[in-house]
Amino acid sequence: MQDFTRRSLLQGGTALAAAGALTGPALFDFAKAWAQTSPWKAESGAKLTVMRWKRFVPAEDDAFNAMVAAFKAATGTEMNVFSESFEDVQPKASVAANTGSGLDLAWGLHTLPQLFPTKVLKLNDVADYLGKKYGGWTDAAQRTCMLGNDWLGIPVATIGGYMTYRKSATDKAGFKEFPKDFPSFLEMCKAMKANNTPAGFALGHASGDANAWLHWILWGHNAWTVDKDDKVIINSPETMKALEYCKTLSETFVPGTASWNDSSNNKAYLAGELFCTANGISIYVAAKDDASKKELAEDTYHGLWPVGPIGKPTELQLAVPILAFNFTKYPNAAKAFIAFMLEKENYDKWLTGARGYLTHTLNAYDAAPVWTADPKNAVFAQASKRALPASGIGKVGEKPATAIADFIVVDMFANYCTGSKDAKTAMAEAERQLKRIYR
C-alpha cells in the first residue's frame, strides 16, 4: 500500500515529466482550483481505500500516482491505493461487497460493477457531468456500466487490442494494406505461411488474447453465445461456419499456439518467430524501448480487426471500469476522485503515460495527444468505439463474465481446431456449459 504526498511527488518529478504528466506546482494548482469548484466536496476527514489493477506500463502508474497525490493535497482526502493482478481484483471486490468493509473504490475488468448492483454507489451525477463536458460516452462503455437508467460504475478506459504485424511480411504476401474482411485475412495468412513468415493467435487459456480474437471470429459470423434475452444459442449454423473458418485459419499458424498464454505471442513476435498477431500496443512499445530491436520496431505496424460476414466490427476489448461501494463513509470524496481522474488536465497526461495501452471512453478524447504522437498509435484510439460489451448481444452482468473466465468459447474453438473434438461435439459441449451458467 502506498501513501502519496506533495513532497514525494515533487521529488519524483523528473520521472513523471518524462511520462508527459503534469507535475509540480502546476498540477497542484490545477487540483486546488478544481476542488474549489467541483460539484462534490470531499467530507471532512475523508479517507479512501482504492484497489486497482496492476499497471503494465510504468509511466501510466507514474501519471496515475501524480493524480492521487494532487487530489489528496487539494481536498485533504487521505488516499490509500494498492494494486492487484487482474485475476485477484474481482475476488477481493466480492469480499468487500459481502462484508461491507475494506474498500471504498474498486477498479477492475469487464463488467465488474454489474456483479454488485445492490452494493454500489449510483454514479449518475458523475456520468452526466463527465458525459456532458467531454462529448458523451462510447456505446460499449456505457453498456458496461449501466443497469436500466442507473450508472453502477464509471468506464474509465479500455485496454485495446489490435492486429500487430511486420509490414515487410504482409507486403511480401501481396497485401500492401492490411485486410479489411475475413476472406482476405485468411488469404494473407496462407501466403505468410508459404513465405515462412507465419501469423499466430493463442488457442490456449490466454485470458485476454484468446478470448479477444475467438469472440471476434464468433461474433463476426453473426454467431453468439446467447441472444438478447440470454437464451443460449451457441449451437447454430453460424457457429459452425465460424468453427470451419477458424480451423482453416489456424492451419496457417506458427506451431504451438494451442498452449499459448497471454505472454506467448509477445515473446514469439519479439524473438522474430511470429509476423502477425493480435495484442495491445505493448509489443510495439517493448520493441521501441529496446535499442537492439530498432529494425523490428520500424517494421511493426497495427491494423484494425477485419470485419466478418456480419458486416460490422465485432470486437471484444477489455474494459476497466471503477465502482464505489455504497457503504463508503465518504461518498462525496469517492465521486470527486472519480470525476477528477477523467478531467482533461489529468486524463490527457494519463493516456500519454500509458503510451496507447489505454483507450478513452469519452468522445472528446479522440483528440488526445497520444494518438498523434506516433502514427502507429492511432489505431488503438478506436478500441472503445468499435467494441461490444463482454456479453455480446446478451445482457451485461456476471453470467457472461463467468463464461469468459471459464474459456467456454476458447475451448470450443481450440477443441475443434486441434482435432480433439469434431465441430458438433465441440458446439454441444459449449452449449451444455453455457446452459449451466444461464439457467
UniProtKB/TrEMBL annotation:
Keywords: Periplasm, Signal, Transport. It is found in: Periplasm. Belongs to the bacterial solute-binding protein 1 family. The keyword DNA repair does not apply. Pfam families: SBP_bac_8. It comes from Bradyrhizobium lablabi. One of its GO terms (cellular component) is periplasmic space. Signal peptide: none annotated. This is ABC transporter substrate-binding protein. Its main location: periplasm. It comes from the Bacteria.
